[in-house]
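Please check this record.
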Amino acid sequence: MIDGIKNENVTNWLSGAIPELALPLNFSLITGGHSNLTFKCEDQNGAPYVLRRPPLGHVLESAHDMGREHRIISALQSSSVPVPRTIGLCKDIDVNDAPFYVMDYVEGTVLNTTVESQALTMDERRSIGLHVINILANLHMEDVDKVGLGDLGRKEAYLERQLKRWNKQWDATKTHPIPEMEESARLLAEKMPEQVGATIVHGDYRLGNMMVRDGSVKAILDWELCTLGDPLADVGYLLNNWVSSDDVAEADFDTAPPTAVGGFPSRDELCDIYSEKTGRDLANINYYRAFSHWRLAAIGQGVYKRYLVGAMGEGHDVDLDKHKQGVSDRANAALELLI
């Protein structure tokens, strides 16, 4: 038995969706935590599949997410954005205590830190980096109505809605003063650029959410934050995660973003490629980078408070001082980009 999988029920459902399955199935957890759970399902012939379901204990709250993720990935099947082939969506919570969907397993490596990216050649790093920005440009050039996602969310006022949401989150979870958060929020509202069109926004577009192999990106993963809105929010977020070795202290190198090893295209090159391909003006991209830092600070503060008051349960080995400092660092980084 494995937490999150009712073996017999799920096996029966999968057998109906994939008649060629060779039983019994082996289930293993790929990624867990407080986000959606990802499991590998492998049959006796070694055929692998992936099952995604909400985190344990959040069935009703996350029930819509599975259908939403499945819908987005299915809509992009024939696009130039690489996504796994979807196999089916189960909405019946009696099967596995929560909705889930199944898709093909894509072979490759997820580059979470420098530990994984150091195994790549310099040519592979550059090739992957170029593919990353070209995929993002392609995503933002997709006609949302033609792919069937025109009603995924509100198209207009993306930044205004985001500022309202995360200001509310910050006010609800603030445990100590961070003047840089309030000042950044003020400047983000004051300097808010006009949104030019609306596109699919991934919401968490970074190498840690991609499967790479042979110098290219084979699949973009984790679409749970996807919505419609200002595409430059994705660009700003990507750039913040696209660090160089100069941005990282030696003591933090092993846990730094994968691009810190060098060999990847520079931020400036990514911006030039994106701008040329989409025709979008990135002169104000630092605003979107600041917004990304500020938003992550608000998110981080919420997590910090939940750990602080014990709402995350027992048994978590979390350095609260480091987490607290991380929120301040994000707020400072946002403010520096706005002044």
Residues 285-308 form the longest helix (24 residues).
